[in-house]
Amino acid sequence: MFRGRQRGGGNLGVLLLGAQMMNMGLENIPPVTLALVAGQVAIFLNLLPQYFPSAHNVCMSSYLVWHRGDWRRLLLAVFYHADDMHLYFNMASLLWKGRSLERRFGSPYFFWLVSVFTALTSMGYVAINLLLEEKLHDHSYATQCAVGFSGVIFALKVVTTHYTPPGLHYALGFIPVPSRYIYWVELGLIQLVTPNASFTGHLAGILVGLLYIKGPLKPIMDTILRPASSRRFTQGGQRSGRRYGFFSSGTTGDGDYTAAQGGNGYYPNSGAGLYPDLDELRQRRAARYQ
């Protein structure tokens, strides 16, 4: 999520995203993930103006949602982006996380997962800002207006990391961090790299992800729709990460992964993608200096 930014005129991020999708292969992107990416690109390019308002009419703040009662912003703001690179970073990350989780859980459950995460992350963002406004007596928290999918991305990252074998991940490409702490470290580092990013939006996403893997959210959701993996794993199959292709945060493997020298993580061979196995911060640096 980004606060108070205006969309720029360039579409370099859209071109980079298209190149990454072509390199990955559209046939290798599961349907829900592909639909989410394509839909957000269409909104950004204003291809459906009759159905979607302009970005400045949908940004989400606790003042507009809670005090003014504009509840539609809880949903709409998530699918808008401040500029083309904001779109690229979020969608590039979604491609890896979505492909991993959708293959693991099945498309119906992944759609259910994203839907719940979207609603809860937006409500969490509003609630956290309301709490900070009250406790710190700072009205600026109420007026912070954010757009973007990154809160949901952080929630998905928590879940993806949960299903990753324990080991080291590398924030910024060189800071070794135990996998269980990687999203907390990135929460702080992204704020340093991009001060305009919404800290409370990203925090809300992490809390929703933790509510799923450690709290009551998953059992509640599973009473409505069970993930495909629940049925698959009860049929005697091995539950190894290598068989099901979950090696590192945000990526999925198809048997084309090799262990990284000097580390516990896994990195794809050179042909696996445009920016393979890069977390959000490494993607940001790679795109900036290409």
UniProtKB/TrEMBL annotation:
Domain of life assignment: Eukaryota
SUPFAM superfamilies hit by this protein: Rhomboid-like (SSF144091)
Gene3D superfamilies, alphabetized: Rhomboid-like
Annotated Gene Ontology cellular component terms: membrane
Keywords: Hydrolase, Membrane, Protease, Transmembrane, Transmembrane helix
Any Pfam family: Rhomboid
Domain Peptidase S54 rhomboid: residue ranges: 69-213
GO biological process: proteolysis
Predominant subcellular localization, coarse grouping: membrane
Subcellular location: Membrane
Transmembrane region(s): 32-52, 109-132, 141-161, 181-213
GO molecular function list: peptidase activity
Membrane protein topology class: Multi-pass membrane protein
Xref: InterPro entries: Peptidase_S54_rhomboid_dom, Rhomboid-like_sf
Family, as annotated: Belongs to the peptidase S54 family.
Protein name: Peptidase S54 rhomboid domain-containing protein
Organism phylogeny: Eukaryota, Metazoa, Spiralia, Lophotrochozoa, Mollusca
